[in-house]
Amino acid sequence: MNNINAVLFDLDGTLIDSEYFYFSNWAPILENDYGLKIDFDEWISNFAGHTLSHNVKMLNEEYKLQVDEEDMWFATRSRYAKANMKNIRLMPHAKELLDAVKDAGKTIGLVTSSYQTTVDTVLGEHNLLKYFEFFVTREQVENPKPNPEPYLLAVNKLSIPKEEIVVVEDTSTGCTAAKTAGLYCIAVTKQEVEKSRLTHADELLNDLAEVKKSLLSLN
Asked: What is the mean pLDDT of each run of 10 residues along the chain (219 residues)?
């Protein structure tokens, strides 16, 4: 990591194992309020890694539903609060990866489409907030991923050349945002459907242990 001075991490699906949490809270709303049954594979294929706005648009255009974005926002937030986000687990090897990057003296930032309250709750529960120099969250940007705005904001916060920054993402949405911002992107996922969408990533790896090895080898 001699020439890499900062690493920017996505949150959901990258550092925290949150996708089943989101699915388990969206699925009952979709079934009870709209008569739509989806399974986890369908969630991963069509909804994971996207914003609420994207998912509502998907429901209305592809599933021919009539979902109001504000109604869905309140419905999902209500379920999240009752479900307790503190129960969300870290992805395997997340802490050891953050330790390795920190020990190497690199700046660590978080760039996520989640809100700051989610970041504080989940990373706070795992005592990981201290690893990050800054957070770019949903409320800070007008255009979330796949728009490059979140990563361009992070670059401005860092004030270092883009060539010295690496991004770690788990979805095509996040990778597109990073690449459009002109950044090197390591994608990490075991989901085959997502792997097929990540051909634009600079590297495609299976887990965070492989990401750690890759980051330590970059010169």
From this structure: 89 93 95 96 88 94 97 94 90 97 97 94 97 97 96 97 97 96 96 90 97 87
This prediction has a pTM of: 0.88
Residue 15, C-beta contacts closer than 8 angstroms, at least 6 positions apart = 9, 90, 91, 94, 98, 110, 123, 128, 208
